[in-house]
Amino acid sequence: MERDIEIQTNVMEELKTIPMLKANEIGVAVKNGIVTLCGIVDSYPKKISIEKVVKKIAGVKGIAEDIDVELNGSQKKSDSELAQNIMKALEWDATVQINYLNILVEDSCVTLEGIVEWDFQRKSATKAIENIVGVKGVINNVKLAAGPTTKEIKSKIQSAFIRNANIDSEKINVKIDGSKVVLTGSVNSWSEYEDAEQSVWATPGVKSIENKLEFELDF
Length: 219
Description:
By secondary structure, the chain is an alpha/beta fold. It folds into 3 domains: 2-69, Histidine-containing Protein, Chain: A (2-Layer Sandwich); 79-144, Histidine-containing Protein, Chain: A (2-Layer Sandwich), CATH 3.30.1340; 150-215, Histidine-containing Protein, Chain: A (2-Layer Sandwich). Helices cover 35% and strands 28% of the residues. The protein has 6 helices and 11 strands. Strands 4, 5, 6 and 7 form a 4-stranded mixed sheet that branches. The longest helix has 14 residues, at 2-15. The model has no long low-confidence stretch (mean pLDDT 89).
């Protein structure tokens, strides 16, 4: 209980560092290290900033997010205009394979579909459009193309863990189930948890992750 109160206090202090975010816009509750966020903001980038700030706080095991985006008049765009702006942004981004993507815009929310070779290409597509005025949310359903053998995937993941100073590779087990990677073991922080997951996604051939890593926290 005391740990949850400490996390809640730290979250609320960190939220004050976000420009233009008012103190009463976001409600924060914490239970067993899970942070619940609720409220209304006037832009999607502000919503993303909130999530990023909370993830960096020590002791946070997960986030339950219930933040709505309500755009003001000057920010609202028609779905047709928004789709055109999104296409232009993706075309200008050299890391995005625009020819392999399909874009659906409905009620200012964007859904991306298609197949690409690398996970960074999936993420680049999201980053290219999340700051466009008028976007209320992004759902990335882009899949990864077939890649290397399971043995090669596992070897590359383990090597990536060893190279990362924030990851204790000896405490993380890697199992390959087809194109899915299953992580078990323990981590000491949310940042290590995310670094491990990001290292896996950066490995060619990985299409899904089942992250079963547990937290070893000092109370």
